[in-house]
Amino acid sequence: MAEPWLKKTELASVLKLSPRTIERKIKPTLKAGNQNRYLLSDAVAQLRGVPEEGGNVIRFPRERTRGEAA
Description:
alpha+beta; globular
């Protein structure tokens, strides 16, 4: 069975992130006009810093918890 295409809000719900975090940290897998769709496997790979073919590893900064020093 093929992996389903997810909307930003659906992906945010699955990953337990805010939709704004999805916008900032994850590039859409499919972009058609003003509609962005994501594959869960691609989103998880981007969050882990796995490079696209021929690309460099991009590490995202770790989210700080409340009270943690910068």
